[in-house]
Amino acid sequence: MDYSKEVDGKRVHDHVDKTMTSLARCIWVPCPVIIGAGPSGLATAACLKEKGVPSLILERTNCIASLWKLKTYDRLRLHLPKQFCELPLMPFPANFPTYPTKKQFMAYLESYKNHFGLDPVFNKTVVSAEFDHGFWRVKTLGLKQEETEYVSQWLIVATGENAEEVVPQIEGMDGFCGPIVHTSSYKSGRLFRGKAVLVVGCGNSGMEVCLDLCNCNARPSLVVRDSVHVLPQEMLGRSTFGLSMWLLKWFPMRLVDRFLLLVSRFMLGDTEKLGLRRPQLGPLELKNRSGKTPVLDVGTLAKIKSGNIKVFPEIKRLTYHAAEFINGIKENFDVIILATGYKSNVPQWLKETDLFSEKDGLPRKSFPNGWKGECGLYAVGFTKRGLLGASSDAKRIAEDIEHQWKAEPKNFMAFSRSASP
């Protein structure tokens, strides 16, 4: 493989292009290698570049932010106000609404990439990454299954918490006659007009998909398998998230939780009567302990109250055309949509278990201490705090690597000598 031509085609950062050394399919990268061209990877690359440090971004798909672009539904908007979702060093355009649409967010990310001159190498799937003789060896496969190995002093994992779909095993799934799809394949309720659709999962995605189905004249039902906090998206003329952050500056978390639940009860009523049982811990304390995000209601509750969306408990089993629930009720459905979330895929390819847990693929240390491992390994976008957490990680990583970058970097000949038998 003639990598020099590929570098010219991809326009990888000039510093990388000039100093990269290729031996067969082994590429020496004198700067940090970032795995993933989502918001976390882009943010880290921008923060590094602002400090004079180039980077090489490897991305398994053919575009940036592939989860947002390829695996989200059409009506999606940011659930938090734009000021809490902007990446470092570049705010959203002033003319964007408070809650930008999916299309607007993608336009912002494209502008962000172009503004900082970031040029990911696309269609490079990382199959393994391990630390060997003082360097990280990152093995990838291309579209034609060609193998390339990148060698660097630094490895930044930016594949995030949502790299792969979570698909639960439900008794009778194989025998159900209709389609069973994950929300990653769902685009619009227009495809399901007139159909009885069962949505499994009551997080923000599940609730919003139900609303979209309802607005498109489908007949949606919602499976609520666990307790859930549902809060208004806005309280007292402010975003609930923004108000919460402001209150936490002055009051303890439990007191703020009590306030949020009191206002929610006043605005939304008793959600338990709708089949939405609240957890024992308050919404902020639960988020802080487990990372479980409260649902911000954008109109779904009103549809549940009016009977346009039915609520069911956990599924016991599926039959040819129906679902039987643990309360004994059985009902027919045409389609099942799994709003069951995503998970990290890091344990599948990273040969390291100190920074990342083998169990869930997340950093062992909780925020804000999970961004840095040993031997030049970093993690960004695994905070369970969305884009705000990713931005925080990106800034810390850039500052840390900047100090090392100014020192004399290791060179490829040192790697070659140490790797020799």
Characterise the protein shown here.
This protein has 421 residues and is α/β, with parallel strands linked by helices. 30% of the residues lie in helices and 20% in strands. The protein has twelve helices and 23 strands. The protein has helices at 3-10, 14-19, 39-50, 66-70, 102-115, 204-215, 240-248, 253-268, 283-290, 300-305, 386-406, 412-419; strands at residues 21-23, 26-28, 33-35, 56-58, 125-132, 135-141, 147-152, 155-157, 164-165, 180-182, 196-200, 219-223, 230-232, 234-235, 238-239, 295-297, 310-312, 315-318, 322-325, 330-332, 335-338, 342-343, 377-379. The strands form seven sheets. It has a five-stranded mixed beta sheet with strand order 1-2-7-6-5. The protein has a five-stranded parallel beta sheet with strand order 10-21-11-12-17, covered by helices on one side. The protein has a four-stranded parallel beta sheet with strand order 4-3-8-23, covered by helices on one side. Helix 3 (39-50) runs parallel beside helix 11 (386-406). The two termini are 25 Å apart. Residues 1-24 and 416-421 have low confidence and may be disordered.
List keywords for this structure.
23 strands; disordered N terminus; 421 residues; globular; 5-stranded mixed sheet; alpha/beta
Record the SSE blueprint.
Layout: H1 3-10, H2 14-19, E1 21-23, E2 26-28, E3 33-35, H3 39-50, E4 56-58, H4 66-70, H5 102-115, E5 125-132, E6 135-141, E7 147-152, E8 155-157, E9 164-165, E10 180-182, E11 196-200, H6 204-215, E12 219-223, E13 230-232, E14 234-235, E15 238-239, H7 240-248, H8 253-268, H9 283-290, E16 295-297, H10 300-305, E17 310-312, E18 315-318, E19 322-325, E20 330-332, E21 335-338, E22 342-343, E23 377-379, H11 386-406, H12 412-419
Parallel strand pairs: 2-7, 3-4, 3-8, 8-23, 10-21, 11-12, 11-21, 12-17, 13-16
Antiparallel strand pairs: 1-2, 5-6, 6-7, 9-22, 14-15, 18-19, 19-20
Helix pairs in contact: 3-11
